[in-house]
Amino acid sequence: MNIKQLFTDDEAVSPVIGVILMVAITVILAAVIGTFVLGLGDQVQDTAPQASFNFDFEAPGGSANDYVVITHDGGDTIDASGQQLNTTVDGTEVLGGLGYDSGSGWTGDVSAGSSVNVTGADWSGQSVRVVWTSSSGDSSATLGQANAP
User: Which of 114, 57, 58, 110 is nearest to 84 (CA)?
Assistant: First the structure.
């Protein structure tokens, strides 16, 4: 066996590297094409915004004048049009006529400092949430939650 010949013989290196590169390119292309064909790329855009909300419960006397002020404290600006941002009280969406009134509710772009008042009866023990729903309606996330004292 000639040791000098082992160091100078490069016949098998090039085809092995070529095959590895071809397999890698094929796998990457299959993943990209599969993502678009199956529609998984659309779901990536429907991620919930990151935002924090402050809940300030005002109870002047345990009456129908009680209210909570919900304020966007910081984070992403949220597009509230198209019912993407809602407020719920104990799981019931806040709308006029359901015992709670949020006035016009969340409208337009909700950014830091935006607030909404939700009035209702006795708040004690009730859970208030700010819920974001994707434009397609396929996913939702609770962005903020507080329990009334």
Answer: 110
For 11-36, the pLDDT digits (tens) are 666 777 888 999 999 999 999 888 77
140-147 vs 127-133, strand pairing mode: antiparallel
Closest CA to 121 of 85, 142, 92: 92
Report the alpha-carbon distance of residue 119 to residue 107 in Å, rounded.
Answer: 17
CB 73 within 8 A of CB 130: no
Which tokens go with 36?
């678009």
Strands of the sheet with 115-119, listed across from one edge: 51-58, 67-75, 115-119
Show the DSSP H helices in the chain as ranges: 3-8, 13-38, 40-44
SS3 call for 91? coil
